Amino acid sequence: MDDVYKSHLSTPPHWFVSNAIYIVTGATLYKRPLLDSDPKRANFCETLIERAGILGWSLEAWVVMSNHYHFVGRSPEDALSLKALIQGVHSINAKFINRIDETPGRRVWYNYWDTCIKNETSYYARMLYVMINPLKHGLVQNPEDYPFSSCKYFLENSEPEFQKMVFSCTEDAQVEDDY
Fold it and tell me: Could you count the other beta carbons within 10 Å of the beta carbon of residue 93?
């Protein structure tokens, strides 16, 4: 499948490339901490993992905070499915949050930004960024202790050499994250 570039007036431009690795960041409307409980963040994680599997996305790292999330994932042949992935996750999670908060129809999610990762160093930098995001936001002293992240799974299941490449990366990931 050829690379496809989509741009809409009200959204950031998106570049869809088959079998490419992306970093995706999404934010709640007005950066409000609407994922303010463990069940809400757990629902987001479960929904992201489930929807990614359905659409053929391979998640490599993820983290969910009270007002934003990041994930690194490999696109399937149909990279245009990123839009369906995000819309599905946002919709399912918003309904879950609004049911808990008794606020039916409230808009929860604002938008998402994606970047197609173009080289190995940038890949390691973004993987590291996602892994240590809870540390950056002062939520934990050890990133593997944050339960709404793939960091613990990564440390328990990936090859030591791969872990070393990720955790020794010094490149600035340059990820939009003013939350």
Answer: 27
